[in-house]
Design a protein that fits this description.
Strand order of the largest sheet: 3-5-4
Structural class: alpha+beta
Strand content: 15-25%
Order of helices and strands: EEEHHEEHHEHHEH
Distance between the termini: 28 Å
Oligomer: single chain
Shape: globular
Number of helices: 7
Largest sheet: 3 strands, antiparallel
Length: about 180
């Protein structure tokens, strides 16, 4: 992907080879293919890798299907949405990739494999927080609000080994209910 930005460069016009102060220069930045460390990314991350000018364009891209998988992971009493977008959806959009024609069940299974590559009966809350790109406190709040189910016998304390485990199926159900269509 090639992007060009205009900037005003401040230079000393009196020095040989310098550009006058008022001249606009062109800077070209070539980026490598997108690669994200987290499966879900924030609206600000989407904004930083697309041609969108404001964060208001991201929900429009979600609503019109240009960004296929996005989720509102806010708690029950939140005054605003907390949107996370599947990083792979961002890559598909930016790189102009077309998705293969899969059944809804197969497509959903593929999405869950991107978010939770190794499904298990339960997942440590800290791993969900990393995958969803949110704080561990937010995951605990979702558990307290009964939006996520803590696995039976799971610890809930601070420190080493204190991250409670969340039932995998409850995390999947939460994301299915919170998908923004």
């Amino acid at each position: 992907m090639d992007r060009t930005f205009k900037s005003n460069q401040r230079t000393d016009a009196g020095q040989p080879g310098c550009i006058p102060e008022t001249a606009a220069t062109m800077i070209s930045i070539t980026t490598k293919p997108l690669k994200f460390k987290r499966p879900l990314v924030s609206v600000w991350t989407v904004l930083s890798v697309t041609d969108f000018k404001t964060e208001d364009e991201v929900p429009t891209a979600i609503d019109d299907g240009r960004l296929l998988y996005a989720f509102n992971i806010a708690g029950r009493k939140a005054k605003s949405r907390r949107v996370r977008v599947l990083a792979e959806s961002v890559c598909d959009f930016v790189e102009g990739r077309q998705l293969p024609n899969l059944s809804e069940a197969d497509e959903w299974r593929q999405v869950m494999n991107l978010i939770f590559p190794v499904p298990a009966p339960s997942i440590p809350a800290k791993e969900i927080a990393l995958a969803w790109n949110i704080s561990g406190t937010h995951i605990l709040n979702l558990c307290d609000q009964k939006l996520l189910r803590v696995a039976k016998g799971s610890p809930r304390r601070t420190g080493l080994g204190g991250s409670p485990h969340v039932e995998y199926q409850s995390a999947v159900e939460f994301l299915k209910k919170r998908r923004i269509l």
